[in-house]
Structures are given as C-alpha cells and as structure tokens.
C-alpha cells in the first residue's frame, strides 16, 4: 500500500502558469503527462524537497531543488513523485521534457548516498549541512545561511540515525559553535568551519 493518498495530487494537464506552494505543502506529481509522455518540472523560485511516496521507502528524500533546477518525473518512481515546499515554492510543469537543462536528482541522490558512508554520525551531520550550504545556502557575515529548517526527524532520515541521536548531535554542534543557536527566523545558520571540517575528513 502506498502513501500517495496523503499528498495533494497535481492536475493531469500541465498548468499554463506557475504552480505556487506555501511552506510545508506537499504535492504528488504523476510520472506521466496527459499525453502519456514524461513531465518535466522546472523550479522558478524557492527550495523544495523531492521525495518518494512509496510506503516501503517511508518518504525517502531523493533531492533538493531550487531556482533553475529541473526534474524529469518519468525517470523516478512509477507511483509518482512528491515535492515538499521548504520555502515558498514556484515551478512550472512541461508535458514534454525540453532539451534544455539537466535533471539534478541523480546527482543529489548520489551525494546523499555518499554522506551515509561517513564513519560517524557527527561527520554525517556535518557532511549533510556542508552539502546543503554549498548547494542551497549563502554566506552572510560570519555565517552561512540556509533559507529553511529541517526537522530533526528529517535530518535523522538523511544521515541514517534516530531522531533522539540527531537532537543530541545538533545540541553538541551548537555548543561547539558549528550551528547558531535556535532563533526566531525560518532558516538555519551554519559556521563556514563545517565546510572545512568535511573536506578534511573526506
């Protein structure tokens, strides 16, 4: 039994205008368009998480997408694919994949798989944050900033540990100055030191 019923399905026909999703909303995308061909998602603005809706994988994260990224839906799960808006998200759907652009999911999946092979959970957490900052963040003063937060449960899924262990690791990393203390904003501030630590441990 799949989990597809838990997500809002997108219409069969590709929208003529941009699809806009608020933070926290998840949409299920059919892998094929109304003409039986594949679909291509092109992100216009914001950050989204791509996940598999199958029950067996429990919402496994496949990639993160931001402005300019493209996703070929027919190259992934046959039950469809889901996009969760981590920030306000805007994208367009093309019924026929265009020649321009490259689907970035395979690269993300490879990088996330690589993180799971770091020896300790501390290193896996640092490697994950280093990857997210380098791909989706920006430098602001003494910190690198991600425009979204991930729950400890989601981080646990990505680094292959439990939520309780992740909470302990995050507290330890904050005490060491690798992450800024919890604030009122919706982002996460990461020390540039994390990037250097990851490169030293590769």
Automatic annotation (TrEMBL):
One annotated GO molecular function: DNA binding
A single GO BP: regulation of DNA-templated transcription
Occurrences of domain HTH crp-type (ranges): 119-194
InterPro entries listed in its UniProt record: HTH_CRP (IPR012318), WH-like_DNA-bd_sf (IPR036388), WH_DNA-bd_sf (IPR036390)
Record PROSITE patterns: HTH_CRP_2 (PS51063)
Listed Pfam families: HTH_Crp_2 (PF13545)
Family matches, as Gene3D superfamilies: Winged helix-like DNA-binding domain superfamily/Winged helix DNA-binding domain
Protein name: Crp/Fnr family transcriptional regulator
Originating organism: Aphanocapsa feldmannii 277cV
């Amino acid at each position: 039994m799949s989990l597809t019923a838990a997500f809002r399905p997108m219409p069969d026909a590709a929208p003529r205008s941009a699809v806009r999703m608020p933070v926290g909303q998840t949409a299920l995308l059919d892998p094929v368009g109304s003409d039986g061909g594949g679909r291509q998602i092109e992100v216009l603005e914001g950050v989204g998480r791509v996940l598999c809706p199958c029950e067996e994988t429990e919402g496994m994260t496949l990639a993160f997408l931001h402005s300019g990224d493209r996703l070929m839906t027919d190259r992934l799960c046959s039950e469809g694919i889901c996009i969760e808006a981590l920030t306000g998200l805007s994208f367009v759907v093309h019924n026929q994949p265009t020649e321009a652009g490259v689907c970035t999911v395979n690269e993300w999946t490879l990088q996330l798989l690589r993180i799971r092979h770091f020896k300790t959970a501390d290193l896996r957490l640092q490697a994950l944050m280093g990857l997210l900052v380098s791909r989706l963040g920006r430098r602001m003063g003494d910190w690198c900033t991600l425009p979204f937060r991930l729950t400890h449960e989601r981080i646990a899924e990505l680094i292959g540990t439990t939520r309780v262990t992740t909470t302990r690791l995050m507290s330890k990393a904050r005490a060491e100055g690798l992450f800024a203390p919890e604030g009122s904003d919706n982002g996460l501030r990461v020390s540039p030191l994390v990037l250097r630590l990851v490169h030293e441990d590769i």
